[in-house]
Amino acid sequence: MKNKALHKTAPDTHILTIVGLMVLALILMAILQPGNYFTLKNAKSMIFQFPEYGILAFGMMVCMIAGGIDLSLVGIMNFTGVLAAMIVTKMTEGGEGMAISAILVAIVTALVVGGACGAFNGFIIGYFNIPAMLVTLCGLQLYTGLAYGITGGPAINGMCDAFKNIANGTVAGIPYVLFIYIIVVAVVAFVMRSTVFGNEIYFLGSNAKASRYSGINTLRVTIMTHMFSGILGGVSGILITSHLNSAKSSNGSTYTLLTLLIVVLGGIHPDGGKGRVTGVALATILLQMIANAFGLLHMDDNAKTFVNGCLLVAALLLDVYLDKRAAKKKAA
Hints:
The protein has 332 residues and is an all-alpha fold. It is built from 14 helices and four strands. Helix 5 (99-128) runs antiparallel to helix 6 (132-151), helix 5 packs antiparallel against helix 11 (218-244) and helix 13 packs antiparallel against helix 14.
C-alpha cells in the first residue's frame, strides 16, 4: 500500500513540462515587458491573488487522487465565507475591540462548516455509491443556494481592518497569504506522503475494488477525503472574503474550471491514484504567471481562456501518451 510508485512517472514529466513553460513565460516577458513584469510590486501582486484558488486546487487534488472529484468547492468557499463575514461584522459592530475574538470564531466556523459540507458529500458518495461528479455538482448548487439565502443577494461588506489584513496585509513586505499558502502546501504534502490516510487515498484511487478487499474502510476514506477537501474550501472562503472585503454567493465563479485545469496540468491523473503536491503547486504559480502576463500585455480575457484550454488539452494528451508508454514498458 506504499504510494512511492504512484508518485513517479507521469507526475515527474508533468513537473518538467511546467518548469519548462515557466521558463518560456519568463523569457517572453523579459522580451515584451521586462520593466513591468520583473518588479517587486508585480511579484507581490501575483502573491496576493493565487493562494485562494491555489488552496482550492489542493481540495480538488485529493478528491481526484482518490478517484473522484469535488465540484462543490466554490460553493463551500462562498458559504463559509458568508458565515465568517456575518460573524465578524456582528461581533465588531460596537468597535474593533472584539476583532481578534471575532476572527478566531470566524476561522473555526469556516473550517468546521467546510469540513461538515465535505463530509456530507463524502457520505452520500460512499454510502449510496453515487458518482462524485453528480453529488458534488448538486453540492455546488446546495451550498451556493445556502450562501444566497443567508445574504438575500447583496454582498456582506464592511469587515474590520484586522480581518481584511489576513489576505491583504504584509510583514516585512511579504504578504501574509504567502505564509498561509506555504503552510497549507506543507500540511497537504505531509498528509499525502507521510500518513496512512494519504496512502489509503492513493490506493483507493488506483484500485477501489482491491482497496475494499484489502481491508480498507472505503466509506471512511471517502468521507475523510471530502472532509479534508471541504476544510481547504473553508480556508479559501476566509481568504477570498478577506481579500475582497466582501462575501456573497457568486465570488470566484470561475474557480471551478480553474482548479480543474490546475490539477490536470499539475499531473493529477483523471482516473485517480497518481499525482504530486509539487505539480499542483507549480501549476498554480504557472497559471498566475500567465494571467499576470496577459494583464500587463492588455490582452483580451478570451485569449487567456483560449490559452488555458490549450494547456488543458495538452495536459490530457500528455496523460494519454504516458499511459500508453507505461503500458508498453509493462508488456515488454
